[in-house]
């Protein structure tokens, strides 16, 4: 079948963006729910918030919201006010949902291997939705892009180094098997993003 690409693709309307951010935030919250149920960790700012939550007993939602606050300035400088506003809304919604969902969803049996793959798929779909509607879940990715602009140091390396630190710290709080399953989930998530986040393969911007 021949793929048809529109010459002048229609941009998302505010309603499109609203449902995309709502979907992405809800799916991300569901991913966090599975992740914390299994005691897993992950990378990026969410991983740091989870480690803080495990170490202190504080809720993930408030910690994630606060940790992201300093990164909005970098996002504004690098990607503009519209991106920062959408990202702030997505982060706030995710933070709130992670506090509400446990009252309505629980898991009787969730094998770590299946959980890791599901977490990767669900979280990957969440991020894809947010990216395609001009938002993100904030954090290190924004800082990495900013540093790349200012210093030339590749954004991917910044994120990789940060994630390596997060997983190294995780080994002091979790057993190596749990960290290994967590790494599988992170791998699946990154594969979902790598294989699907292609601007030349979808029409709406």
Residue share in β-strands:
under 5%
Order of helices and strands: HHHHHHHHH
Q: Report mean pLDDT, rounded to a whole number.
A: 83
Low-confidence stretches are: 1-8, 201-205
What is the count of helical runs? Answer: 9
> Roughly how much helix do the residues carry, as a percent range?
over 70%
- For the report, how would you describe the main beta sheet? none
Choose one word for the global shape. globular
What is the subunit arrangement here?
Answer: single chain
Distance between the termini: 23 Å
Tally of extended strands? 0
Subcellular location: Cell membrane
Membrane topology: Multi-pass membrane protein
Organism: Sedimentimonas flavescens
Protein name: YitT family protein
Characterization of this structure:
Helices cover 73% and strands 0% of the residues. The protein is an all-alpha fold and 205 residues long. It has one domain. It is globular and about 45 Å long. It starts with 13 loop residues before the first helix and ends in a 9-residue tail after the last helix. The relative contact order is 0.19. The N terminus and C terminus are likely disordered. It comes from Sedimentimonas flavescens. It is found in: Cell membrane. Its main location: membrane.
């Amino acid at each position: 079948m021949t793929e048809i690409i529109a010459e002048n693709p229609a941009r998302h309307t505010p309603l499109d963006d609203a449902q995309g951010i709502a979907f992405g935030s809800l799916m991300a919250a569901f991913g966090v729910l599975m992740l914390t149920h299994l005691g897993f960790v992950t990378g990026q700012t969410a991983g740091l918030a989870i480690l803080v939550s495990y170490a202190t007993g504080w809720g993930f939602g408030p910690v994630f919201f606060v940790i992201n606050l300093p990164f909005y300035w970098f996002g504004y400088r690098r990607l503009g006010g519209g991106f920062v506003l959408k990202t702030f809304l997505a982060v706030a919604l995710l933070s709130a949902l992670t506090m509400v969902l446990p009252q309505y969803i629980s898991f009787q049996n969730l094998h770590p291997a299946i959980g890791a793959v599901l977490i990767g798929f669900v979280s990957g779909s969440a991020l894809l939705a947010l990216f395609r509607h001009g938002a993100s879940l904030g954090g290190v990715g924004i800082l990495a892009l900013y540093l790349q602009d200012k210093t030339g140091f590749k954004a991917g390396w910044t994120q990789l180094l940060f994630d390596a630190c997060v997983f190294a710290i995780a080994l002091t709080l979790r057993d190596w098997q749990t960290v290994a399953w967590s790494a599988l989930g992170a791998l699946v998530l990154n594969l979902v993003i790598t294989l699907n986040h292609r601007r030349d393969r979808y029409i709406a911007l």
